[in-house]
TrEMBL record:
InterPro entries associated with the record: MFS, MFS_dom, MFS_trans_sf
Source organism of this protein record: Streptomyces phaeochromogenes
Record key words, sorted: Antibiotic resistance, Membrane, Transmembrane, Transmembrane helix, Transport
Pfam families: MFS_1
Coiled coil: none
Protein name per Swiss-Prot or TrEMBL: MFS transporter
Membrane topology designation: Multi-pass membrane protein
SUPFAM superfamilies: MFS general substrate transporter
Amino acid sequence: MACLGVFVGYFPVTTVSVSLPVIQQALGASTADLSWVSDAFVLPVAALILTAGVFGDVHGRKKVFQAGLGFCVLGSAVALTAQSIAQVWVGQALLGVGAAALLPMTLALISHAVPNPRERGKYIGLWTTSMMGSLTVGPLIAGVIVEHVAWRWIYLLSIPLSLITMVIASFVLTESRSSVQRALDWPGQITAALAIVALVYGVIEGGTGSFGDIHVIVALAIAVCSGVAFVLVEQRSASPMLDLSLFRSASFTGSALVVMISFLALIGFFFVLSLYLGMVQQLSTLDAGLRLLVITVPPMVLGTAVGRLMRFLSARVLITGGLVITAVGLLVLTNVGISTSFGSLAWRLALVGLGLGLAFPCITATAVSSVPHHQAGMAAAGNNAFRQVGGALGPAILGALLTGKAVDTLPYHLAAAGVSDATRSQVLGAVDADGLGAVATLPLGRSTGPALEALSQSFLDGLQLCLLVSAVVVLFGAAVAAWLLRPASSQRPAALVAAGGTRPLAADQHPVEAAATDRP
């Protein structure tokens, strides 16, 4: 049920991502509007995932699991009937609420059923495989749907999938709650949600306009103040939403930072890659989806194997090595062009997928296993929250970089293509008003071909900048992993003290395992 739940929760991510060019054309959306399509899903996940974890601990995990599926049905129905980009945002936001409820519950189910951290790694590997499986089939299904019917029908499959899962869960799952007394932390929830939403709003609006605009400055100031308030509130709360003592574990801190950094680069990369495949290479949604398979299949195939491999290699080695491979894949993608073939693109994308396949299962397993067993659910929810914050910032930051660079270099490429001054002014005026996608709809006569060629070249300039930034960000994540993800033995005293245990280790017992089996 954990694997099925995470499959449902992540299903909209790549299904929608690969359809962004079609949505842009159908609804006349700008690049900033498309950023909000992605972030409308990710923001509720990031803002609500910790609270959903507490709801599950207090009121029952089965109830929250079922409620998450209900929101997935509702969000899909709203987006399925969308007639405007704003309605798509609403549907995506409701889907994000559903995912926020599902994700912590799925990991809590695993932690509850498999208390042994060594054994748990295998099941978290299966969980990761299911997540990547959802990301893998999404583009294919979206491609087939868009080829034959309207793009809105990409949301249809989520409805029966969620309903079937609800029926199965009602019979299979038994209700469970946390053995530790917890209460809802509304001050923490409000300050965390304000900080996340204000930060992403400020980044998106600053990237499409100016970071000197008053509303952008206000948004970023609210983000900083709310972030500080969240820390102060959590330090004083009797039942904190996120126990800040978790960050005393270097492994938990490292995994939280690494997963945020990695998802910032990954989700942002998916965003700009889908636009490249649709706007520059002019591929159909199905052809674009087939290329995304090269990224998502390796993590899906490797998920279970990496879970077993963690018994023999440290998470530090696997995560650092995987992120370095991912960064290399991003760097070699910087020289792709308008007519780059599938074969030439595939091996580069496969490097990205291989690196992610090695790193991702280990990141989640490290976060859950680096804290005492009774805090595993909160650790999983916290790790997922950082994952989604990174995922929300990814399209915002890379979308802003892409648009800014493309708009800056477009006049040069229009002049180099021989476009007249009058046509150049018409094109630049349309871009200022409605975004880069507006160029394809302009009646430019003989200048249409050269103008679209110039647009593609300027888009490639923006893409190269995004890939370079993503690679640097991922390499920074690898450095953080190498520095903070120390061997478990070095954390033995802190883990045992945090668990409330004073008994000596058995001769054959792993120190983190000992901490996990102690009870407060």
